[in-house]
Structure formats: structure tokens, C-alpha cells
Recover the amino acids of this structure.
């Protein structure tokens, strides 16, 4: 009896170990946000104009080209939607998470990785952020049918509240602050206030 229980336990442990080794079936597989936060250096954060408790997080992949970072993210988790690489930028949509890769203006081998939850993207990005990357119909399906027109009107009335994405210099539409970036000070900020 003890041998049969022990045999069953050994088989169960072996099956569990094999399942965990398979990245597709692993119950311990990290989400894309966890993968990015443990793989790349946190560079800055951008505060939401609508909800100060919400942020987009900016990570940096140093000495790595955009294609390599793109492949790494796709190898870890297949996105629900993704754009082509265009003008040094690519956008991924995962379950309720937008990930944008942008080449640094100073060095194409330094990639800025912006991670924003769907609520942040809906309330802060301007429609132009997606133009040339993702279809307006796809964005409307995610954010609601009238998002594109409604957000375009809001951006034309109050352009400083329409976030255009982070760039390598840390300057973007939004308020000014002085975030600490690996011990040094750099101009940056969040969405919500004019420069």
C-alpha cells in the first residue's frame, strides 16, 4: 500500500514538474508586466490626468535593438494584437495592458518600454498615438465605439491633456516634475498639466 501511494506521489510530482517546465502550460508563468519589470530597468513613471493613482511605467532596455526586445516580449507571452515596427516604434496589446516600444532618439540600441493599463490608455493617450500602428476600429472595439471621435474632440480643445507617449529625453505632453533616474535628475513628468 505504501509503495502504491509513493508511486502515485512520484508520478504526480513528475507530471507537475513537466507542466511547469512547459512555458505554455505553466501555472507559474509571469504576466507581461512582471516579465518586463524583472527584465528591464525602471526609468520613469507617467501619472494619469484622470486618476492620480494610475501610472504608465517606462522601462529601458539598454544596448538592445527594437527587434530583439520585441522578440523577447513575444517569446514570453503572445500579444492579443500588435503593430508592425514603424519609424522606431511598435505597440502590443495584451489582456488589459498596452506595451509600446520606442527607440531612443539618442541611440537606436536603447529602447524605451512603456507599460500602461487599458484605463490609463483610454483616458490619456490621444488618437494620434495609435495612427499608423493600430486600426481605429480595433481601438474603438477596445475603448468603445465613440472613443476615437470623443477623444479627438477633447484633444483639440485641451491638447495638453492628450498624452503622445514617452520619448528618450523624458519630455512629453504633460506636467513637469523631476523624477530620479538611477541616481540622477532628469526632466520629465506626467499627463495633466501644461509645460
Amino acid at each position: 500500500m505504501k509503495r502504491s501511494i509513493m508511486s502515485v506521489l512520484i508520478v504526480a510530482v513528475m507530471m507537475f514538474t513537466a507542466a511547469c517546465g512547459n512555458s505554455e502550460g505553466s501555472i507559474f508563468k509571469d504576466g507581461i508586466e512582471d516579465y518586463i519589470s524583472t527584465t528591464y530597468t525602471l526609468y520613469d513613471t507617467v501619472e494619469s490626468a484622470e486618476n492620480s493613482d494610475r501610472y504608465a511605467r517606462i522601462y529601458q532596455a539598454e544596448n538592445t535593438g527594437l527587434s530583439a526586445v520585441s522578440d523577447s516580449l513575444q517569446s514570453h507571452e503572445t500579444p492579443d494584437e500588435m503593430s508592425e515596427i514603424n519609424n522606431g516604434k511598435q505597440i502590443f496589446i495584451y489582456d488589459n495592458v498596452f506595451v509600446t516600444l520606442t527607440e531612443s532618439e539618442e541611440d537606436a540600441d536603447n529602447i524605451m518600454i512603456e507599460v500602461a493599463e487599458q484605463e490609463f490608455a483610454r483616458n490619456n493617450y490621444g488618437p494620434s498615438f495609435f495612427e499608423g500602428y493600430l486600426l481605429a476600429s480595433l481601438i474603438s472595439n477596445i475603448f468603445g465605439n465613440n472613443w476615437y471621435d470623443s477623444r479627438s474632440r477633447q484633444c483639440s480643445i485641451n491638447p495638453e491633456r492628450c498624452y503622445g507617449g514617452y520619448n528618450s529625453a523624458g519630455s512629453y505632453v504633460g506636467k513637469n516634475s523631476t523624477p530620479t533616474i538611477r541616481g540622477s535628475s532628469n526632466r520629465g513628468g506626467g499627463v495633466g498639466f501644461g509645460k
Observations:
- Residues 2-21 form the longest helix (20 residues).
- The radius of gyration is 20 Å.
- DSSP finds six helices and eight strands in the chain.
- The first strand starts at residue 41 and ends at 47.
